[in-house]
Structure formats: structure tokens, C-alpha cells
Write a structure and sequence with these properties.
Oligomer: single chain
Protein name: Carbamoyl phosphate synthase small chain
Number of helices: 10
Family: Belongs to the CarA family.
InterPro entries: Anth_synth/Amidotransfase, CarbamoylP_synth_ssu, CarbamoylP_synth_ssu_N, CarbP_synth_ssu_N_sf, Class_I_gatase-like, CPSase_GATase1, GATASE
Order of helices and strands: EEEHEEEEHEHEHHEEHEHEHEHEEEEEEH
CATH superfamily of the largest domain: Class I glutamine amidotransferase (GATase) domain
Distance between the termini: 58 Å
Structural class: alpha/beta
Strand content: 25-35%
Enzyme class: ligase
GO molecular function: ATP binding; carbamoyl-phosphate synthase (glutamine-hydrolyzing) activity; glutaminase activity
Largest sheet: 11 strands, mixed
């Protein structure tokens, strides 16, 4: 096996980590974040929520099971860069159709291997997420000051609206499985394939819509409910999606949002959002359901959070009645879910659809289905009408 070319990871604070090129060579920039999952690297790479980010994998061995056609969450890799310690030299899985390094190379993803990812993670955990760059090939030979200047001149995540780069350009339909109970309009802000499968499995015809859709176009579908997906970027840069959601809530349509959708529900209800120093990423975040006291181990990828009172119900500043924080992160008390008490709307900050697991929160899709059925019963509508 040929020895890979030199590469270097440069953090915004000047920290440098020298290793070997992994995947494509060249230079790439993004917000450096660490993901703590022991499994699911293919789902992570193809999750549109990671657009704009350089992902550091804390698990030391990556690539053992190769890649396949079933585990992707979208048609392409979205991360800006990929950082691993020990890439597997062989693929050992009967489902594999190729190797991870070949996949990275084919999709022109610049990565780096052979560095101490524990040290990178500790640096990010101490100082917070920051901009970074990976330089390999000819770019690895650039002067240290030139590399650092390039990192510091790259875009920051705050203020970025990335929905347009990850959303579908055309609407499409995923038909309901089994008994149809209605339809759901999904605003694609970076939706994952597993989300659509779970909604379809609950009896919904799933209308996946571009992030540019207007309220008039959405309501013309006569949906039984509306869903906002996960996605990358700063919720403060998505005022248009907030205004769309406020129109949906005034219409009385049931709403469910996850991750970015939770942040946008928070803003639609009149609360603020803020950037977390470290963010939550990986598949081992403990979250408590305040109504039941049940602790769920959940999958996360978010760098922003909702600023809402956690000590009891509060009045929506935007006039949508009472709202309570339904879930809280046990590590840092960050808001992990919202539930409107006077309108049919709720959301969670984490990923209940996580295909790589854990599946503790998958019941939320059942809760959404039940909410839609209750709304149909109270309004006298039927699945045939919607």
C-alpha cells in the first residue's frame, strides 16, 4: 500500500496536528466539531446537518465496515472535511459495496488520518468549536502563517443560512405504508432518508418540499400536518422559515420538528436561540423527558439551542399560548424539546430517527401520529380529505 501524502489539521487558535492525507488531497475549511459515535460513520457523513463542518471522529478505528447503498441518509457526503485516527486497511462486512477511503476520494472530500483525535477533541472541548482547515498535497507545504491566515479568513458558522445548499430543488412524494391516515408536508432543511421512512411507516403520504416553498404552495397540498427537518446553519439566519411556520401554526395544523426544526419552532413561538460553546454531537447524549422522568440516550448534531424557561410553562412571546420545555439535556441543562399546550405543536432538539441508533426516542413518531389523529377527530376531518 502506497504511503499517503503529508497533511495537517490547523485550528483557528493556531493548534496544528500533522498526519497523512485521507480521501482527496487539497485544502478544505469548516467548523471543527467532534462526533462521539462508535458506529454510524456512513450515516454521519451523509447527514446534511454536517454541511459546513469538519468532523473529528472520536472512535479510533474508522472504515472497518466499508460503505454500502442502504445506510446513506442522503445521496452524497456533506461534511466539509473528515478527521480520523486509524483508517481501516481492509473492509470486513458482507454488506459492503466499497471502501470508505475510495468513497471519500470519489466525492472529493479532503480528510486527514494518523493524528491524535483525542488531543483534538480535548482542545475543542476546552476552547469550544472553532474554524479549521485541512491541508494536504501541495497545500500541506504552505507556510504555517499562510495556512492559519486562510483558516481565520474562512466563513464562521454563525449567521450562515445553509438550507438552500442541502434542500431538495423539486418536491417529491413518499407514499404511506400500510393504512393511510393522512399526509404530512415536510420542509426539507436537510432531511434524512430515515426520517421519511419513519413518517411513511406511520401511515403518512410524505410530501417533501424545497426550503423555498411558500405558505400558499404548502397549504394547497391540504396536508394533515407539517414537519420541519434537521439541517445545518444558524437559526437566526432563517427568518423566512420562521414566518412560514408561524403561518402554519395560525392555520391550526399539527406540527412536529426535529433538531433545526426545534430551533425554528422556538423562534416561531417568540423565543431566542444562541450558539453553544461546544455543541452536542454523537449518539450518547442523555436527555430526560420532564413529563415522565424517563431518561433517553439520544443522537445529536447541533451547535445552536433554544433559550426558553425550563422551570415551568411560559407564555409564548409571539402569542401562541402556553409553552413548556418538554426535554432537557442532563449534561448541561440545555433545552432539548418544546411542547405547545394550547396548539398542536411539539419538537425535539435531538434525532429520534437516528438510523445508527440509539432508538430510545423513536416513539416520538408515534406521538406525532397520535396528535394528528386527535386533531382529525376534533376537527371532523378524515384521512380521505387530507
Amino acid at each position: 500500500m502506497a504511503i499517503a501524502e503529508p497533511a495537517v489539521l490547523v485550528l483557528e487558535d493556531g493548534s496544528r496536528f500533522t498526519g497523512r492525507a485521507y480521501g482527496a488531497t487539497g485544502r478544505t475549511f469548516g467548523e471543527a466539531v467532534f462526533a462521539t459515535g462508535m458506529t454510524g460513520y456512513q450515516e454521519t457523513l451523509t447527514d446534511p446537518s454536517y454541511a459546513g463542518q469538519i468532523v473529528v471522529m472520536t472512535a479510533p478505528h474508522i472504515g472497518n465496515t466499508g460503505v454500502n447503498r442502504e445506510d446513506v441518509e442522503s445521496p452524497r457526503i456533506w461534511v466539509n472535511g473528515f478527521v480520523v485516527r486509524d483508517p481501516s486497511r481492509v473492509v470486513s462486512n458482507h454488506r459492503a459495496t466499497g471502501s470508505l477511503d475510495d468513497n471519500l476520494l470519489a466525492e472529493k472530500i479532503v480528510g486527514i488520518s494518523g493524528i491524535d483525535t483525542r488531543a483534538v477533541t480535548r482542545r475543542l472541548r476546552d476552547a469550544g468549536v472553532m474554524r479549521a482547515g485541512i491541508f494536504s498535497g501541495a497545500d500541506a507545504a504552505l507556510g504555517e502563517e499562510e495556512q492559519l491566515a486562510a483558516v481565520r479568513s474562512s466563513a464562521e458558522m454563525s449567521g450562515q443560512n445553509l438550507s438552500g445548499s442541502v434542500s431538495t430543488s423539486e418536491p417529491y412524494l413518499v407514499e404511506a405504508e400500510g393504512e393511510r391516515i393522512g399526509s404530512v408536508a415536510v420542509l426539507d432543511l436537510g432531511v434524512k432518508a430515515s426520517t421519511l421512512r419513519y413518517l411513511s411507516a406511520r401511515g403518512f403520504d410524505v410530501h417533501v418540499l424545497p426550503q423555498t416553498v411558500s405558505f400558499e404552495e404548502l397549504i394547497a397540498l391540504q396536508p394533515s400536518a407539517v414537519f420541519y427537518s434537521n439541517g445545518p446553519g444558524d437559526p437566526e439566519a432563517s427568518d423566512r422559515h420562521v414566518e412560514l411556520l408561524q403561518a402554519v401554526l395560525r392555520e391550526g395544523l399539527p406540527f412536529f420538528g426535529i433538531c433545526f426544526g426545534n430551533q425554528l419552532l422556538g423562534r416561531a413561538l417568540g423565543y431566542g436561540t444562541y450558539k453553544l460553546a461546544f455543541g452536542h454531537r454523537g449518539i450518547n447524549q442523555p436527555v430526560v423527558d420532564k413529563a415522565t422522568g424517563r431518561v433517553e440516550i439520544t443522537a445529536h448534531n447541533h451547535g445552536f439551542a433554544v433559550d426558553a424557561p425550563t422551570d415551568g410553562p411560559s407564555e409564548s412571546p409571539a402569542g401562541f399560548g402556553r409553552v413548556e420545555v418538554s426535554h432537557v439535556n442532563l449534561n448541561d441543562n440545555v433545552v432539548e424539546g418544546l411542547r405547545a399546550l394550547d396548539i398542536p405543536a411539539f419538537s425535539v432538539q435531538y434525532h429520534p430517527e437516528a438510523a445508527a441508533g440509539p432508538h430510545d426516542a423513536n416513539y416520538l413518531f408515534d406521538r406525532f401520529r397520535d396528535m394528528v389523529l386527535e386533531n382529525q377527530a376534533s376537527t371532523g376531518s378524515t384521512s380521505e380529505e387530507k
